[in-house]
Amino acid sequence: MKKATNIAIVGATGLVGKAFLELLESDHFLDSNIHLVASKKSKGQKISLRNSNHVVGALEDFDFSKMDLAFFSAGSEVAKEYAPKAVNKGCFVVDNSSCFRKDKTIPLIVPEVNGEALTEDTVPGIVANPNCQTIQMVVALKPLHDLFVIKRIDVTTFQAVSGSGKLAQDELQIQVRQQLKGEKPSSHIFNKQIAFNVLPHCGEFEKNSYTQEEMKLVWETHRILDANIEVSATCVRVPVVNGHSESVHIETHEPMNIDIAKQCLSEAKGVKLLNEEGPESYVTAVEVDGTDSVYVGRLRMDLWNKNRLNLWVVADNLRKGAALNSIQIAEILFT
């Protein structure tokens, strides 16, 4: 394995950037030097990490030739321009944006599912981090797919506003205050009020009437898990600060046994199974905020078909859905 002596966090002042810093504080790449990078407007900002102040540098002036590894979390346009430049300087890039996810020459990786696709030949190069809601779903479904072979997935996601960034979190909080004061909430980030509401609309609409977030679940599941699985998705934005939830219904080629399904999920890497009954059979987004696992609960067989199963899947979208998955990708190749 290669040594990651110097690591750059591009987009260090954003929500995902801060999640990276939390994970690097005491759990990952502890022997590496961490370099914080953001846009010019954040240049000079000081951020505490590992008992010392780190000064944020400007991306436009940053020298990637001294970096072994860079985590990009600064949007597609930034990734499109700067990720190839970093690679040309010999730096390995893990990108969190949607920029490279549909490029079949670039690996799209969830370590628990298809991490074996990475080899040392990947370095230097770019690896794409999938969309947050795809990551948690395929982590939960991979063990079941291995046993029973999934034919179809029907999923409804309940996505926190953190998926749209810090300004979206701020808008939710502002609208809550406005509503409670009897004022008409103003919307700028979302097309409609998000406070005390749900919006069946995540991302722009495609020509087929599905949104981008819904189609990402289709495209990315095909790339990561199995191209033969039928996927139908409805993505809903909900007034939750952080943490995505999913109601997942699967149909398999082989008849399922609920006890075997629970057993395989209880042993699956990255999964925490809630194996109790009633209110103890699930967790909520609030409870998983700041945690690293994919939580699976409310397992129950379909009432009409022994090849169908329902489950509830929850994870912190800033951690396992973004920063942690990226770090886990890098840890396959670097120490």
3D architecture notes:
It contains nine helices and 14 strands. The chain is α/β, with parallel strands linked by helices and 335 residues long. The chain folds into two domains: 136 residues, NAD(P)-binding Rossmann-like Domain (Rossmann fold), CATH 3.40.50; 185 residues, 2-Layer Sandwich (Dihydrodipicolinate Reductase, domain 2), CATH 3.30.360. Helix 4 crosses helix 9.
Task: Supply the key terms.
6-stranded mixed beta sheet, 31% helix, globular, 335 residues, Dihydrodipicolinate Reductase, domain 2, Rossmann fold, 14 strands, 6-stranded parallel beta sheet, alpha/beta
In short:
The protein has 335 residues and is of the alpha/beta class. The chain contains nine helices and 14 strands.
- Class by alpha and beta content: alpha/beta
Straight-line N-to-C gap: 6 Å
What's the CATH H-level superfamily name of the largest domain? Dihydrodipicolinate Reductase, domain 2
**Beta-sheet strand percentage?**
15-25%
Q: Kindly identify the CATH topology of the largest domain.
A: Dihydrodipicolinate Reductase, domain 2
Provide the domain count. Answer: 2
Helical amount: 25-40%
Helix and strand sequence: EHEEEEEHEHEHEHHEEHEHEEH
